[in-house]
Amino acid sequence: MTKVVFPVSADPVLLEITREGPIFIMTMVDGENRFTTEMCKAICDALDHVAETVDKEGLTEAVLMTRGQDKFYSNGLHMEKALTVPNFTDHTFMPMLNKLLMFSIPTVACLNGHAFAGGCLMAMAHDYRIMRSDRGFMCMNEIDLPAPLPAGMSALLRYKMQPHIYRSVVLEGKRFSGKEALASHLVDAIAEGVEPTVELAKQVARKIAPKAKCGSIYTLIKEDMYPEVSSRLMMNAKL
């Protein structure tokens, strides 16, 4: 199995891309997988690598699946590092979310563990989400910090969630288990244990991979689906 690591020419390795047939698997390998400038750049570079491979090989079946390791999908922003980078959220983190949201092939988030704050946002930027039912929570904890949600983040959550669920997420900081996330339509399916969750995510990925044959149409449809979300995520990206 061929593996490509990111960053390509720097240590430490933050994520890996492997391939199983039509499935490109992005595995974040940085422990809690907190978002820094380096992690966001690695994700964007990995997305470019996948898109270029799909185009170069003329693939008619392709899908991106992301996952973490151990008990974390992602535990959100690395606040100590993020606070040292001017406009990190506007210039780095939210553009990364937008790149994933608007990605040119189907995307599946395999939530092997906790998806907190920025990790929850990354999961919601995918087309589909599969979550482990016996361990891990989805949560936005800004209300308990306390900290406001930038407009782009709010728009992403508001679009992807039913109004009463959005209220519980942002005003209560509710932690959703796998079963609660499924009942609230935050995820599409759940499985017990890491490997069954990964296998279920792969099943979903294989089912939707043929939609990649639509090529640029897939992106155009997404642009029509998410105009407000995308514009708000990118609102201050170039300032």
TrEMBL record:
Protein name stated in the entry: Delta3-Delta2-enoyl-CoA isomerase
Any one GO MF annotation of this record: delta(3)-delta(2)-enoyl-CoA isomerase activity
GO cellular component, one term: peroxisome
Organism of provenance: Entomortierella parvispora
Transmembrane segments: 100-125
CDD domains: crotonase-like (cd06558)
Record keywords, A-Z: Isomerase, Lipid metabolism, Membrane, Transmembrane, Transmembrane helix
Pfam families per UniProt: ECH_1 (PF00378)
UniProt keyword annotation of Lipid metabolism present: yes
Domain of life from the UniProt record: Eukaryota
Keyword field contains Lipid metabolism: yes
Any single biological process term in GO: fatty acid beta-oxidation
Catalytic reaction annotation: a (3E)-enoyl-CoA = a 4-saturated (2E)-enoyl-CoA; a (3Z)-enoyl-CoA = a 4-saturated (2E)-enoyl-CoA
